[in-house]
Amino acid sequence: MDRTEKLIAAAERLFDRHGYVATGMDRLTQAAGMSSRTLYKHAGSKDALMARVLGARDRRFMRRLEVASVDALFAALADWIRVEGARGCFFLRTRAETGGEVPGIAEAVAAHKAAFRTRIHEVVAADLGRADEALAEQVLVLLEGASHAAVYRGTAAVDAARAAAAALVERARA
Amino acid sequence: MDRTEKLIAAAERLFDRHGYVATGMDRLTQAAGMSSRTLYKHAGSKDALMARVLGARDRRFMRRLEVASVDALFAALADWIRVEGARGCFFLRTRAETGGEVPGIAEAVAAHKAAFRTRIHEVVAADLGRADEALAEQVLVLLEGASHAAVYRGTAAVDAARAAAAALVERARA
DNA sequence: TGCAATGTAAAACGAACGTTTTACATAGTC
DNA sequence: GACTATGTAAAACGTTCGTTTTACATTGCA
User: Fold this and answer.
1) pLDDT tens digits for B18-44?
2) Contact (CB<8Å) A148/B144
3) Partner-chain residue, chosen from B22, B134, B163, that has the shortest CB–CB distance to A99
4) At how many degrees (to 10) do helices A36-43 and A25-32 cross?
5) Which is it for the CA torsion B64, B155, B18, A80, positive or negative?
6) Which of A7, A30, A93, A95 is deepest in the core (most CB within 10 A)?
7) Which residues, in sequence order, are CB contacts of B97 under 8 Å at separation 6+?
8) pTM for the complete prediction?
9) Is the pLDDT of residue B1 over 70?
10) What are phi and psi of A33, to 5 degrees?
11) Å between CA of B38 and C1' of C18
12) Does the CB of B166 have a partner CB in chain A at under 8 Å?
């Protein structure tokens, strides 16, 4: 495992679990097992590190959404939450904490959400055999809702979203 | 307007718009138009102030959800977003920023979400003429999803959630 | 008139922050 | 065997934070 990869993995874990602002650089150096000098040589700054973390998480998350059906989207989310826990969307949380005012971070969040939306439209089209903008938007809302309701409702939120999506897909197919 | 009310209103605005950690006490004193000594006499601490803000927001938000139909829930959310903007659920954001580790804050968030869930179940039962746990959980996910998807999708997210809820209610009624 | 109560303005507190620098160690390369 | 790259450990930088304190003004009531 490369030094930079190790740093980014440790940073993602801490930022995700405790928040961006609440995570100090001393905790990062300790978790990454490197001196602050090395950390800054690799990452440049805390903001730049977070931008890289967002990029890494985007790739990791989007890889999970390479599926062919709407139902598999919710299965993928359930898996993700089972492994990562439910703390709400990391991208939206980060955007909120930085007020949308840190350039690299705001851009990474916007890019992720655009890719997320595109992927959902693709999956809906593949599942249905035709494009359905309205249904895709509903599936997006259900996925976003499941992510956030799971914070206090647990996996029941994902189950409910999954069942709702199944009903809406069935309806669109008829 | 009472001094404390003015303080809480100003604090809610700043915490909501810029985040809890990012909002310093100097900005709060300036926005509330009072000295830091008076602010601390009224609020006790920053954490306690946030707990009070959460209480005030809960009352304000829940008052809007005193409706009789599922569709009216989404109309109320659309109104709220039109006035307040879409930055994601203030309670979940605050909980995330404080890592769920600040007692007064974590409790206020949990209390709000419990009340929120109860209200949704009541409205679903009133609309349907009978209790429907599964539908209520789906409506909750749709409301939560609309709140968060609206951050980057705007009012289209609420429209989509509203249409999805209408379809699910119709289905439950048949 | 005098005494609490309540307020402001501003300095001061110690701690923590992101970041840089100093001083030194360890490898691998010409 | 000196040079360069790359690393650590730790002190130091200047700033900002939440909070407290000092010194003084205003007001309402006995």
Assistant:
1) 999 999 999 999 999 999 999 999 999
2) yes
3) B22
4) 90
5) positive
6) A95
7) A19, A21, A22, A96, A97, B19, B20, B21
8) 0.95
9) no
10) 65, 40
11) 31
12) no
